Amino acid sequence: MRPKRPTAVPASLPGNSVFLVGFMGAGKSSVGHALGQRLHWIFEDLDDRIAAREGRTVAEIFRDSGESEFRRAEHAALQHVLQELQGGGARIVALGGGAFVQRENVALLKASSVPTVFLDAPVEELWQRCCTQASETGAERPLLRGMEQFRKLYETRRRSYSKASLKIQTGGRPVETIVAEIAKTLGLKEIAIRTEQGEVE
Fold it and tell me: How far is Cα 177 from Cα 131, in angstroms, rounded to an integer?
């Protein structure tokens, strides 16, 4: 038997989905979680899917196999998400800082006609957020080095982020305000949830 060919991503996906892009510390996870709670949509961090598929953390993939192997796994995970969304449903997906810089990923998202939201903030604030998170959680960021390298990487990637469907500033703003702006601008609809009594919330 011939191996099955991978399912192609359609020109336009049904259902509701939003992909959050931006640099480290932009607030993709915080905003994604809050937006999911507001709309009763599923939130997913693509890096978590990659780690689950590979059986190791993102930092371990970078360290043991290099960035090129991580980008391969990242692209495969993105393809898988988009294929799942063919059946409809509502999902918010946060992409890693380098995902929207890769041409093949941008091409997939563009072909699928899914809205992409660029979350941005002053680079000094992004740096501070990353340092605070690393010290509080012990999380390892493979590309987090000194401030100057951080700034250069941000400036390089920002040109790609700017191609997103929508740009939202997160610097110094409450998460609730950011979420409300995204939902209003994109016209995102809340999913009604039925209680145990059968009432719709």
Answer: 24
Give one word for 25, left, alpha or beta, with left for phi > 0 and alpha for psi -120 to 50. Answer: left
Residue 180: φ, ψ to 5°: -65, -40
pTM of the model: 0.86
The encoded tokens of residue 130 equal: 């990353």
In angstroms, the CA 4 to CA 176 distance is 45
- Give residue 116's region: left, alpha or beta (phi > 0; psi -120 to 50): beta
Give dist(CA 32, CA 126) in Å, integer: 17
| Structural domains for the chain | 17-186 (3.40.50.300)
Residue 61 banded pLDDT, cuts 50, 70, 90: very high
- CA gap 111, 39 in Å, rounded: 25
Is it the case that residue 173 has pLDDT exceeding 90? yes
Q: Taking the CA atoms of 132, 155, 80 and 188 in sequence, report the sign of the dihedral they define.
A: positive
| Torsion 100-162-34-14 (CA) sign | negative
Strand runs labelled E in 81-159: 90-94, 116-120
Computed from CA positions of residues 135, 136, 137, 141, in that sequence, does the dihedral angle turn out positive or negative?
negative
* Residue 138 zone, left/alpha/beta (φ > 0; ψ -120 to 50; rest): left
